[in-house]
Predict the structure.
Amino acid sequence: MGRESWGLAAAEVRTKPEGGYRFVTSEELCLAWALYREGRVSARGLRAYFALHEMAARRAAVEGGCVARFTVVELATLMEEQDARKGRAALTELERAGLVVFSEKSLRFNRAHELESVPACLHTMLAEFKKPERAVPVPRRVLRMLAVRAGRGFVATTLAHVLRCMRFLRK
């Protein structure tokens, strides 16, 4: 998988992160953060948002012919919540905010134009990007980490690094 890099003795350069990644647009990440900043989504709701992305990544990796099944129990487990009711409450919050549409058979992440009211700071955030619709390869390990830890500074720093540094280069 890896190859030696020039200039670094025995360093290994990986072509993709271990565990893979999930493409999420800059707009989707900024929208979730903006809703959190405005108080329309709680820290637990933001954690659930990242856990749902991990769940979607797991279903994308499944071979064809298998039927996807999404459960609140899996969501709560990814968030390291002992009580599935907390996962359900976070999911309800995300649905109410308009970020996701969830059922046992499907999971869809909404874009800003699909919301009834867009956070005021979102347009300012998106103006910083040349292409806010650009898909960012978010390592799945990062998604799982964000599903468990939701300190404001930690999430802001992680999202800033992901949005600024992560690129998918075609060969």
Notes: DSSP finds seven helices and six strands in the chain. Helices lie at 26-37, 43-60, 72-78, 84-97, 122-126, 140-148, 152-165. The mean pLDDT is 85. Residues 79 and 113 are 28 Å apart (CA to CA).
